[in-house]
Structures are given as C-alpha cells and as structure tokens.
Amino acid sequence: MNKLINTALEHLNINTLNKLQEKALATSPDHDIIMLSPTGSGKTLAFLLPLLQVLDPESDYVQAIIVAPSRELAQQIEQVFRDLSSGMKICCCYGGHRLAIERRSLEYPTQVIVGTPGRLEDHIMKGTFDPSKIKTIILDEFDKSLEFGFENEMSAIIDHVPASAQKVLTSATFATEIPEFIQLKNLERLDFQVKDKEDEGKLTIKKVHTTSDHKLDVLLKLVCMTGRESVIIFCNYRESVDEVSDFLYDNGIFNETLHGGMEQRDRDRSLTKFKGGSVNVLVSTDLASRGLDIPEIKTIIHYHLPQSEDAFIHRNGRTARMHESGISYVLIETDKAVPDYIDENSEDVTLPQNCPPVPLPEWKTLFIYKGKKNKINKIDVAGFLYKKGGLVKGEVGIIDVKDYVTYVSISRLKAEEVFNKVKDQKLKSWKAKMTLLR
Fold first, then answer.
1. Is 153 helix (H, G, I), strand (E, B) or coil?
2. CATH annotation of 3-191
3. pLDDT confidence tier of residue 207, bands split at 50, 70 and 90
4. CB of 154 within 8 A of CB of 139?
5. Second-level CATH architecture of 363-436
C-alpha cells in the first residue's frame, strides 16, 4: 500500500481491511470494475482507497468523478473522502442549492468531484471544469441512478470522459442490465453479494397481520412495542410518509421523514436528528434503503410491502449489520396477497392490547448557523459547549459540521438550560445564531 493509503487508514483508525476492500486494492487500474456487495459492507472505502493509488496530489485538475443517485449519498462519499486526510480536494455537487456556490469552489484546484447525475452534467455542459483528464469515473449504486431515470445524464457524462478512463460500477445487487453507453472493457467483477458469516448479523423477519382500516393503529402499537430502539418505517409513497408521520406525532411519537419531495435542508435535518438520536423513528420511502450512513438500526417496519424482492433486501439491509441482530416487521393486510419473497414460515406476531408509551429520545439537537466555511470544526463546537454551556463528556453526542450550518446532539435533560447559556455567546470569533430543534 502506498503512503496515502497508510495515512488514510491511520486517520480512520482501521487496522484491518475486509475482503472486499483487500480485493479492490489488488485490482489493476487498467481494468473496469463491477463491485457487488451488500449495504454496510464498506463499499465506499473499497472504491476510494484504490482511487488514492492513481490520483496525483500535485496536479491541480480534476482526475476522478464519482456519480451518486442521491444527494445524501454524494454528501456521504464526500465526507468519507475528507476523512481519508489525503490533502486532496473534493467538491460535492447536487441540486437543492445554488450552482454558483459549487462553481466558486471549483475555481480552486480540485482533484475529485462527486455529485448527482443532473448536477454533474450541468457543470460539464457549462464548462465549469475540464473532464478531459479524468482517470477514473465511479458510478456508485449505478442501478439506482438508472432506476431514478438518470440514463441520459449518465450517458452525457461518460461521453465527455476520456475512453481510456477506468470505470468502476457499484451496487448492492446485480439485478440490472448494464447499458451499452457505459462501454466496459477488461472487465473484472468483485462479487461479495453474500456476506461472510464472520461479518453477518442475524436478521429475523416477522409478520404482523392487519386490516387496511386499522393499519395505522397497528403500526402505533408496533412502534410503542419497540420502545426507544431506532426504527425505520418504509412506505411506498411520499404522501404515505407524511400521513404516517403526522399520525405518529399526534400520538406522541417523535419522528422525522425522508423522501424525494423534501427540500435538501429538510432532508439533511431529518437524517441528522435521526442519526444523532433526537428522534428514534424515521418514516421514509426507499430513499433510506441504500447509500446512507445510518448506524445501529434495530428495527425495520414495512408499512407497505415493497414493489420487489430486490427492494425488500435493500430495506432489510439497514439492520443486522456487522455482527448485530435486527428485526424486520412486515405489515400484511388480510385482503392482499403475500409476495413470494416473504417466507411463509416467518413468525406471526400478536401485538399486546396495551403498549407502554415510548420514552422521549435521549438527545435534542442544537442547530448552529455556522459551519466549515466559517472555519468551525467539531473540536471547536465541543469545546464551546463544555466551556460556555457547562456540559461534560457524555452530554454531547454526535456533532455534524456542514458547510454553513452545524447540528449537535446534546442531552435532552440539559438542553434548555444549555441553550439559554450559549445562545448569546460567541463560537470562536463568530456571533452564531442558534436554535434548539423540537
């Protein structure tokens, strides 16, 4: 391994790579790659580490482009690359904020660009950066990009990349035909779709029978039964996500929503609150089934049966990861057929008549209107809350510093007191506006 990779692993506190990552590092940059492995198997690191072997940190032009189907996945890849501490610059491009912000960022030497297909095509067509020297193009979750209808945008991007560039395609399953426009050559396939037993958690699938009239009431009991565990509830439609969320809130269940119709800032806020433990329930479309870094999910609830077995696998992939166990509950309406992909021998669950109320989440989220662009980092924020807010270790949770805002999980028991202490204080040299999110 070269020096950049050794440095990256030290910064990530990783001593041992998994088999997928080892195999990926051993591949030749002259070969195109199809990388197949389940959600949560370290796929992002598996394609970023080999990238470090071919990038030239001394060059000031774009050498690699990473195409992701969603904004959240693009942001996650950006963060992992930054965590590698390679000294090279990555720029993240996606819809939902101004194109001009990204154009200004790309005026400075940038080695890697990651983004959604539509926004990347916009930059190429507007001449924001020169794609003629790109060595590697990575299509992460390429099948999802095709499913979302980005075929024309992906084709346009590939048309502007040198034919000699290595192409790396990743997916959790191989259920999609590769379009002709991708033009793979010297293909090498890394197939890790089946997890190693040593890495595999134990997933239990359980059936909950209901009628359509009582489905929301059954869901409420099921959520109450999970207590303070982290739960993702999957719905097939955006309107259903909002309906389920409102019903749960009306019945005292704190939750957040996630679907493609939301503004980017609202999607960021929902995910950050869920990851930070300010809410324990996330109601989502299949947008949350892949590509998001959401650890320690104990329970999956399929409020709607997914459209396919492939979607069922991806949803369930959010739990039972890396030695952990998890439960997937399937709500089955009595007048509807049960899909073949659900094992008829799965346990039937009878819910208790009365469930205890769900405890309030352990954390609340402090929202600060300053971020990386204001030269603020996690250490600054933690020190600020310890010194000015009087918090101690264990009372500050996840700190998520984005470009222009910061989210911090703080102990719910101390939240109001701390907010009143820090709301008029300076963070570094900034008088930062703050809000305590509900």
1. helix
2. 3.40.50.300
3. very high
4. yes
5. 2-Layer Sandwich (3.30)
